[in-house]
From TrEMBL:
Domain EF-hand, residue spans: 104-131, 163-198, 229-263
CDD domains reported in the protein's UniProt record: EFh_PEF_Group_I
GO MF terms, alphabetically ordered: calcium ion binding; calcium-dependent protein binding
The organism's taxonomic lineage, starting at the top: Eukaryota, Fungi, Dikarya, Ascomycota, Pezizomycotina
Protein location: Cytoplasm
Basic and acidic residues compositional bias, start-end: 11-51
Any one GO cellular component localisation term in the record: cytoplasm
Chain spans, region Disordered: 1-100
Protein name per Swiss-Prot or TrEMBL: EF-hand domain-containing protein
This protein's UniProt keywords: Calcium, Cytoplasm, Metal-binding, Repeat
Keyword tRNA processing: no
Calcium keyword on record: yes
Length: 265
C-alpha cells in the first residue's frame, strides 16, 4: 500500500505545494484543524544578500516572521505521530509581497530586469552548509511559483517562494533530530511516517538513495524538499487512477508513459 487509507490519510500531499484553488471533496483532502500558534524565533537571512538561506538567528540581513511551529513529540517509525506533525500550510504564489525582501530580491536580480532567471536563482539559493541547491530543485521552485508562466520569478512570486522555503525549513529542522543540518535515512523514514505514508523499509531506502544525489548518505535541505514534493506528486497520480481506493490500479501503457512525461516537465 503506497499511501494511508485512514480518515486523514496523507498530510503531506495537502500541504506540500502552494495552495491551488479548486473543487475539493475527496476523502483524501479533509479540512485540517488550524495549527496552534506559539512563540518562535525570528527569521533572518544570510548576511550575504547574494545568497539566500532561511536560517534561525537573532540578527541578519532583513527579517520576516516565520510560520508557526507546532509543539509535540518527534515521530518515530514505531509510533503513529501526533496530528501536529503535519507540514505547515504553504502560501500561494499570489500571496502578498513582503517589502522587507526587496533588498534581497534586488541583490539577486543581477541584470536589473525585475525578474529572476533560473541562473540568477541558482546562484543565490543555498543550503545551511552553503552548498548550492540541486538544479532540479531550482527548476521545481520556478515551475511552482512562476504564476504567469514567464519562465522567470518576479518579486511577488519570489516572496511566495521564500515563505514556502521558510515553512519547509521549519519542518526540516523538526526532523533533523541530531541537528546535523542534513537528513539521515532514519530521519527521512520518521518524516514519511509523520506524513502518514506506509511504505516498506526497502522502498523508503530506495527513495532515499535516489535523492541522495551527492552520495553522502544524507539529504541536504534542498533534496529533502525535492524528494517530498516528488513523492507527493507521484501519490497524486496514483490516487487519480485508484478510484476505489484499494491501493491497486490498472493503467494502460500510454497512460503510464503520459504520467511519467508529465513528471519530467
Amino acid at each position: 500500500m503506497a499511501y494511508n487509507r485512514s480518515a486523514n490519510p496523507d498530510e503531506l500531499p495537502r500541504f506540500a505545494e502552494p495552495d491551488r484553488k479548486g473543487p475539493s471533496g475527496s476523502r483524501y483532502e479533509q479540512e485540517a484543524p488550524p495549527p496552534r500558534r506559539e512563540p518562535s524565533p525570528r527569521q533572518s537571512y544570510s548576511r550575504d544578500p547574494r545568497r539566500l538561506s532561511p536560517t534561525h538567528h537573532n540578527s541578519g540581513y532583513g527579517h520576516m516572521s516565520p510560520p508557526p511551529v507546532n509543539a509535540g513529540p518527534r515521530p518515530t517509525a514505531h509510533n503513529r505521530p501526533p496530528a501536529v506533525s503535519r507540514p505547515p500550510p504553504s502560501p500561494s504564489p499570489e500571496s502578498g509581497a513582503d517589502p522587507t525582501l526587496l533588498p534581497l530580491f534586488r541583490a539577486v536580480d543581477k541584470d536589473g530586469t525585475g525578474q529572476l532567471s533560473e541562473k540568477e536563482l541558482s546562484a543565490a539559493l543555498v543550503n545551511g552548509d552553503w552548498s548550492f541547491f540541486d538544479p532540479q530543485t531550482v527548476r521545481m521552485m520556478i515551475r511552482m511559483f512562476d504564476s504567469d508562466r514567464s519562465g522567470t520569478i518576479g518579486f511577488q512570486e519570489f516572496c511566495g517562494l521564500w515563505s514556502f522555503l521558510a515553512s519547509w525549513r521549519t519542518l526540516f529542522d523538526r526532523f533533523d533530530a541530531d541537528h546535523s543540518g542534513n537528513i539521515s535515512l532514519d530521519e527521512f523514514s520518521n518524516a514519511l511516517v509523520a506524513f502518514r505514508y506506509r511504505l516498506s523499509p526497502g522502498f523508503v531506502s530506495l527513495i532515499f538513495r535516489t535523492y541522495d544525489k551527492r552520495n553522502e548518505g544524507v539529504m541536504s535541505f534542498d533534496l529533502f524538499v525535492q524528494s517530498c514534493i516528488s513523492l507527493k506528486r507521484m501519490t497524486d497520480v496514483f490516487k487519480k487512477y485508484d478510484e476505489d481506493r484499494d491501493g491497486y490500479i490498472t493503467l494502460s501503457f500510454e497512460d503510464f508513459l503520459t504520467e511519467i512525461l508529465k513528471q519530467l516537465k
